Amino acid sequence: MLRAELLGLVTTTATKVAAAVAVLGLVLTQLVLVTLLPALARGDVGPGAEALGDDLPQVDLGSAAAQVDALSPLGATLGGGSIGLALLAIVLLGVLAGTSDDRHGGIVGAVLASPRRGRLVAGKAAAVGLVGAAVGVVLALVSLVTLVGSLAVSGIPVVTPAGSIAATSVRGVLAVACLAVLGLAVGILCRSQLAGVLVMIGVLVAEPVVAAVAQLLVGGAAATWTQFLPVALAQSVIHGGTADVPGAVAVAALVGLTAAAVAVAGVALSRRDV
Amino acid sequence: MNAPAPLPLEARGLRKAFHGRPRVDDVSFSVRPGRVVGLLGPNGAGKTTTLRLLLGLVARDAGEALVLGRPYRELEHPARQVGAVLDAGGLHPARTGRQHLAVAAARAGVPAARVDAMLAKVGMTTDADRRAGGYSLGMRQRVAIAAALLGEPRLLVLDEPSNGLDPAGMHWLRGELRAFAADGGTVLLSSHLLADIQEIADDVVVIADGRVVAEATMADVLADPAAELEGWYLEVTGTEGVVR
């Protein structure tokens, strides 16, 4: 089952395009945030930090925190919660994997070969998780290479311990795999490719809005529950947790959320006429 | 004393409604081993829904659908026991015919080496590495038939398998199905091509308005030397002179 689903994934253009967009999107993000902004601050390019004033975001790659942030396989965030191109491509990789069978009629052959549909969905989730992890490894390497290259050019030492670099990368790979599988579950639930893509983008776009509104409603402090929304959870996992949500809790919550979404998708497919 | 071998296919009082409208209503028939059975009926009669009910693709409202003595869902390695062609195989346009069969082989748990043999069998070796998006309907149908045969099943369930096939392809398919049955295999074949059915089927089941309206052996249908399946079909369905 896993082999068939893996073969199915790697022989479709959508998977390759989504993976390529994720990598290129990350390269662009990292070039801007990890390479260009520090170069602007140093005055290597542009009019220099003084001339740019407050328009130039402060990036201090000399700190361990900034270096760890820049190691994220979803791209550096500068402390914000913006949705990067890599993140979008990863979840859409899953969505397209989930809708492809319905769109092209392959679901009939899949269900005939595996009439216990929960197992079929589990096989798809495992395959998307593996492909997501493989893409995550590439993304983690891109982030690492970009950071190390930028630091070398700037003459800034790497102050992040090797263990911390490795842990951030491993957690990042896990987060990327979970996000891809979440996308798969949304795709299976929506069936329609357009609906799946729109729902997924809607969820991603709505999350920071919901978090901001919740923050306003509780008087300026970030509501803890908003840190259990998918993107916030993924960022928490990558960075080893937050003040409110320890790393282990974030990992358990993201894996649990992913497993729950896959289970719901499995039940939905089992009850559906194909 | 050994229990008798289960029938390859058995529909008992199958019912299915879509949006409150019955599409299949109390359909019962059985398919005996080693027989080619033609499932006939006008457009919208419920043939495809019946096939999907038998294969567990559509949930039944009532009745029982048994494949080799048990619900399809409970078969072990179903793709190695039952081959099916529905919807021209559901080929992903970005995959080549060979890749489609490789995925199907992996799903069925059969060796990848079977892919080349099946491509050769359906005459698709030359075009096997082209993307399915560029295939004609007949080529897609050939790949779908190859996928159905991958697991060396003993039962074939085919919905309009000759759609889009050229005359040579249709001739090949007729021969293949007869040889399959002669070798002990069983075929349930939905088709509007009555001349083909007359040539290859042993039995016919006719569905109209969701109900079985006739069930007969081909020998009985053609008992009168002047009889033809078409005349019998038009009579039992009451569709002579009716354009639907």
In brief, what are we looking at here?
The complex is a heterodimer of chains A (274) and B (244). Chain A is mostly helical and 274 residues long. Chain A has one domain.
Span of the ends, CA to CA of chain B = 52 Å
Number of helices of chain A: 11
General shape of chain A: globular
Helix and strand sequence of chain A: HHHHHHHHHHH
The ordered H/E elements of chain B are EEEHEEHHHEHEHEEHH
Tell me the CATH architecture of the largest domain in chain B: 3-Layer(aba) Sandwich
The CATH superfamily of the largest domain in chain B appears as: P-loop containing nucleotide triphosphate hydrolases
The helix tally of chain B amounts to 8
Q: Kindly give the count of domains of chain B.
A: 2
Structural class of chain B comes to: alpha/beta
**Mean pLDDT score of chain B:** 93
Structural class of chain A: mainly alpha
Biggest interface, chains and residue tallies: A-B, 27 and 32 residues
> Any low-confidence stretches of chain B, pLDDT <50, length ≥5?
none
Helix content bin of chain A: over 70%
The helix fraction of chain B, in percent, is 25-40%
Q: Judging from the principal axes of the Cα atoms, what is the shape of chain B?
A: globular
List the keywords.
heterodimer; A: about 270 residues; mainly alpha; 11 helices; B: about 240 residues; 2 domains; 6-stranded mixed β-sheet; 9 strands; about 30% helix; about 25% strand
Question: What this model shows, in words?
Answer:
- The complex is a heterodimer of chains A (274) and B (244).
- Chain A has one domain (2-270).
- Helix content of chain A is 74%, strand content 0%.
- Chain A has helices spanning 2-10, 13-42, 49-52, 64-70, 85-104, 106-113, 117-154, 162-190, 193-217, 230-238, 247-270.
- In chain A, helix 2 (13-42) packs antiparallel against helix 5 (85-104) and helix 5 (85-104) runs antiparallel to helix 7.
- The longest helix of chain A is centred in the middle third of the chain and has 38 residues, at 117-154.
- The relative contact order of chain A is 0.14.
- The mean pLDDT of chain A is 89.
- Chain B has 2 domains: 1-81 and 153-238, 3-Layer(aba) Sandwich (Rossmann fold), CATH 3.40.50; 89-152, no CATH class.
- Helix content of chain B is 32%, strand content 24%.
- A 6-stranded mixed sheet of chain B has the order 5-6-7-3-8-9, with helices on both faces. In chain B, strands 2-1-4 form a 3-stranded antiparallel sheet.
- In chain B, a hairpin with a 2-residue loop joins strand 8 (203-208) and strand 9 (211-217).
- Chain A binds chain B through residues 1, 3-4, 7-8, 11-14, 100-101, 104-116, 271, 273-274, and chain B through 52, 55-59, 72-73, 75, 78-79, 82, 84, 86-96, 99, 102-104, 106-108, 147.
